[in-house]
Design a protein that fits this description.
By secondary structure, this protein is an alpha/beta fold. The chain has 19 helices and nine strands.
Amino acid sequence: MSSEHDIRPFRIEIPQHQIDDLNARLANVLWPDELPGVGWVYGMPVAYLQALAQYWRTRYDWRANEQRLNEIPQFVTEIDGQTVHFLHVRSPEPDALPLVLSHGWPASFVEFLEVIGPLTDPRAHGGDRADAFHVVIPSLPGFAFSGPTTKVGDGSTERYAEVVAALMARLGYDRYGAQGGDAGYFVSTELGRIATEHLVGIHVNGPITIPSFGGDERSRDGDRAAGASGSLWDTAESEYSAQDQARLEAMIGPDSYTRYGYAMVQSGRPQTLAIGMHDSPVGLLSWIVDMFQRWTNPAKELPEDAVDLDALLTNVSIYWFTKTFASSIRLYRESNSWGVDSRNSGVPTGAAIFPGDNSIRKLAEQAHTIVRWTEYDRGGHFAAMEAPDLLAADVREFFRSLR
């Protein structure tokens, strides 16, 4: 008889009828018109998306990618009624440090595929065996094969952290590190607050440093709309470097509504958006790939210039086959971490900053015990996909003195 504490091996086996249905839908898209010469300014260019959808239907091989994923040890368990799918790759080095990697949105466990080898078996990748990790990569509740969340609040990053802490305890890991970016940043830093005695260190890429606004709500709105006046910007001119002022401008300046408009939709009316995404694979493809175009290295013109195209389509395919877009975006409505002053856990924290990240050290140090801050000129927001070598090396170096 199984119990809720059972950990069971898992294999991905998408039924063929789902693949056939996907291809049929991709072959019968009703395309919109578009204005000439606007490029990405209005969003996803139709001609580009048409070519991408054709590639997904005729050249991308789900079965080959499914087989590759199944070569990685995968498991499922149940925590407080929620299915939790995870990858668990133990290092050949018996004294390796356990490390939990938490993905962001619109990513999945696929985000970390290229760093598994360098982190678990550094000797095989030109590194030192002393830097090895036992790696755990959960599909956060509401994502991928963890399936949808079923209760209000279970889609928050705070709840994700509770589930991850419970998973690590179930695996028998009493002392471990945490790493993550995007939503995974909130999960990893929350782990530091709720499982402080178990965390040896926290490593984040692109820490989300949201400034607080001075004055009342009306002045806050004015600052956001004007982008150049009000108490925040007066402070910025006197206390922040030119580089940090530019990062503030990107976060809260007049163009921020274009940059972060998707988050406003997903936090305000997530279910309305999800209806279209669950009915149209090309709509889902457009929405997710537009995020990758917006958030990958700004020096790269197209998403596939920054990340491997098949890896990107594997990520989108998982959202489609598991029907988890709706539950994945609930974190935008249900999380309470965004722009909130959080307690400093005191856990040593390292940060890796990549092109396109708007992280500000002064703000990060107000919320975390920053002991390492490294800025890179290659990679981007999806660091594990864009610059896995740099991220893996930074993680190794950060934890070296904490083992």
